[in-house]
Amino acid sequence: NDEVFRYDENIGSLCVIDGGQVRNVFGGGYQGKIEGNSGVSIGTTAGTSFFAGVPTILRSAYGGGEMAVVTGTSTVNMYNGYIGYRYHADAAENKKYQPELKLNADDEANLLSENGNLYGAGFGEGAVVMQTQVRLYGGTIRNGLYGGGEIAAVGDGERNDDGSYTVNQGGQTNVYMYGGLVVGDVFGGGR
Predict the structure, then answer these.
(1) What is the pLDDT of residues 165-191, one digit of tens each?
(2) Closest alpha carbon to 65 in 21, 34, 19, 98
(3) Does pTM surpass 0.85?
(4) Half-sphere exposure of residue 100, counting CA atoms within 13 Å on the CB side?
(5) CA 105, CA 111: separation in Å to the nearest integer?
């Protein structure tokens, strides 16, 4: 996927997931600031298998960091693969990718049912990006596609003592869907 980030050479971090299985993916850091841009690339357009272009992300993918700041743009491009699914090598060909709903074998409440999302921004209090670019070319997202983050900000501001907010720098989200499947909903903002 050479075309992934050619429009911008100022990348502070880049996370490429072309095969295999991971729990979550973050383009930014964990409570660490990225001076610049962050990027995530998932799968390849010519993907043929779990190990070659069709990865799985068990929970969710984020363009930004976890409780961390990205001072520039976070970009997420998904070409192929599954978000919110687990790969089962021994299953029949049409059953290899199954929804990941249970935290463990004793989980009767399907605690992971709200996972399986792709976010342009980050996760958690203190997670901030200035702008997002999210492009879905292919693959399957079990729940939702979001231009913003999960309990996170796009743009910079602060809460005043009286409960009002001051915006220091406005943010912007951009979501483009060219292919693929979002089982849930698509949002320009966050959650």
Answers:
(1) 777 888 999 999 999 999 999 999 999
(2) 34
(3) yes
(4) 24
(5) 11
